[in-house]
């Protein structure tokens, strides 16, 4: 039986650059990094939520083609105040895919942007009670 979400995997083209991006932009830390003959991998986590990780995978010797959009649509990060977050990340160089946050189904707000490998990322502000 499923007990919790564990991780989301992202196919990357440059492991060092991707680790630096997620560390510098969002504060992720590396829990584990290693490689085999065919792959380099790393697991990143946030101190506030160590049970959910991002797995980064870089093929050294590709064993198949990955679909760029993949089966996972996006990775989402919750923020307290989306306007403050947008300003903060724009100052760090992020270009958002829309000029303003969009409403969510739960009456919150969200905005999308691309990560260093073209992965779709999202900031979401949950509705205030």
Total count of helical runs of at least 4 residues: 2
Instruction: Outline the low-pLDDT stretches.
Output: none
Distance between the termini: 32 Å
What's the domain count?
2
Structural class: alpha/beta
State the order of secondary-structure elements, H for helix, E for strand.
Answer: EHEEEEHEEE
CATH level-1 class of the largest domain:
Alpha Beta
Order of strands in the sheet with the most strands?
Answer: 1-4-3-2
Overall geometric form: globular
CATH topological fold name of the largest domain: 2,3-Dihydroxybiphenyl 1,2-Dioxygenase, domain 1
CATH superfamily of the largest domain: 2,3-Dihydroxybiphenyl 1,2-Dioxygenase, domain 1
Our Rg estimate from Cα atoms comes to: 16 Å
Q: What's the average pLDDT?
A: 87
For the record, the CATH architecture of the largest domain stands as Roll
Provide the helix percentage: 10-25%
């Amino acid at each position: 039986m499923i007990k919790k979400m564990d991780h989301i995997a992202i196919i990357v083209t440059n492991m060092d650059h991707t680790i630096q991006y997620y560390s510098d932009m969002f504060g992720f830390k590396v829990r584990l990094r290693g490689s085999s003959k065919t792959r380099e991998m790393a697991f990143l986590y946030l101190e506030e939520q160590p049970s959910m990780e991002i797995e980064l995978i870089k093929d050294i010797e590709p064993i198949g083609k990955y679909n760029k959009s993949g089966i996972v649509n996006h990775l989402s990060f919750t923020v307290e105040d989306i306007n403050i977050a947008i300003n903060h990340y724009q100052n760090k160089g992020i270009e958002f895919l829309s000029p303003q946050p969009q409403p969510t189904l739960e009456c919150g707000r969200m905005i999308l942007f691309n990560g260093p490998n073209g992965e779709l990322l999202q900031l979401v502000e949950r509705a205030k009670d």
